[in-house]
Amino acid sequence: MRVLGLDPGSRRxxxxxVERRGTTFRSLGHGHVVPPAQLDLPHRIHAIAKRVGExxxxxxxDAVAVEEAxxxxxxxxxxxxxxxxxxxxxxGGRARPRDRRVQPAxxxxxxxxxxxxxRKEQVAFxxxxxxxxxxxx
Length: 137
Hints:
Layout: E1 2-7, E2 13-21, E3 24-33, H1 41-59, E4 63-67, H2 75-92, E5 98-102, H3 113-130
Parallel strand pairs: 1-4, 4-5
Antiparallel strand pairs: 1-2, 2-3
């Protein structure tokens, strides 16, 4: 089974493709979609959706996992994230994948930026280790 995971963001959307064969997992690819900063929101969303469509065409995933939106202190940031997430869900539906919703790693107890950063770094470390990825994610 091949899964495309998406971490939506209007300035930077992360993606990773993992394949499982039996009990073995391997990374097929990962990266970020970073639209030009000078673009307005609709054009940034379009650029993100277009690139994710290219990733879907390239890797032909069996499933797409899109991180659920989380509440941010800024209502506007939450709404913008919702727009990006919606575009990713629509884009993910153009292939045969089944949509999978993934709860965010953030919660109320993680308001302290240092704690959240530490947890994200721990997750990145384990992903790199399990998938034998060198460098940064």
